[in-house]
Amino acid sequence: MTLTMGSLFDGIGGFPLAAARYGIKTVWASEIEPFPLRVTSLRFPEMAQLGDITRLKGADVPPVDIVTGG
After folding, report:
1. Please, which pLDDT band fits residue 3 given cuts at 50, 70 and 90?
2. pLDDT (tens digit, 9 = 90+) per residue, 6-59?
3. How far is CA 31 from CA 2, 25, 40, 57, 62, in A?
4. If we measure between CA atoms, which residue out of 1, 59, 15 comes closest to residue 47?
5. Do 49 and 38 form a contact (C-beta atoms < 8 A)?
6. Sheet containing 25-30: which strands, arranged edge to edge?
């Protein structure tokens, strides 16, 4: 079984980068700043970008095993 992760206040994707090194798949991230979004889009093109955390509805966020916050 592969563990999954979501990253809140993701920044440039430090938690997803560390997770990938241990075989953990980051399913989604929440970030609003343009530069960090460009960085993570290049590093993790398969990771869903959910945008502004204040506009998320919990029922719409895919479930994951781990949630991180930067």
Report:
1. very high
2. 999 999 999 999 999 999 999 999 999 999 999 999 999 999 999 999 999 999
3. 24, 18, 10, 15, 16
4. 15
5. no
6. 48-49, 25-30, 4-8, 66-69
Structure tokens at 69: 């916050």
Which token pair is 27?
């399913």
Q: What is the pTM of this model?
A: 0.92
Q: Reduced to 3 states, what is the DSSP secondary structure of residue 39?
A: helix
Amino acid at 24: I
Amino acid sitting at position 70: G
Q: Amino acid identity, residue 14? A: G
Q: Which amino acid is at 6?
A: G
